[in-house]
Design brief:
Oligomer: single chain
Shape: globular
Radius of gyration: 12 Å
Helix content: 40-55%
Structural class: alpha+beta
Length: about 90
């Protein structure tokens, strides 16, 4: 339901299930690289997350698609990146 509600408002979520930061490199990727990539891709409507996931909501479908492609190309292979408002773990 969340994706349909966001889409009705012209918003496009991308969630990353990345797990907890286990070392400095993972912390850098999660807390610095992901937000920077999102801002560079923009326009960002919102960014939320927990210890083990990040969801970015973009104002355009193009920004969401560009962010998704860039994140998938550079993120660790075990990160699950989906066009959803909630992370998908499997």
């Amino acid at each position: 339901m969340a994706e349909a509600e966001l889409a009705a408002h012209g918003l496009h979520p991308v969630s990353i299930a990345h797990g907890d930061a286990q070392d400095a490199q993972a912390a850098h990727l999660i807390y610095e690289w992901v937000p920077q990539l999102a801002e560079e891709t923009g326009p960002v409507h919102a960014r939320v997350g927990g210890n083990d996931y990040t969801t970015v909501v973009f104002a355009t479908a193009e920004a969401a698609a560009t962010f998704t492609a860039a994140a998938r190309a550079a993120a660790p292979t075990w990160w699950k990146i989906t066009p959803t408002a909630q992370p998908v773990w499997r």
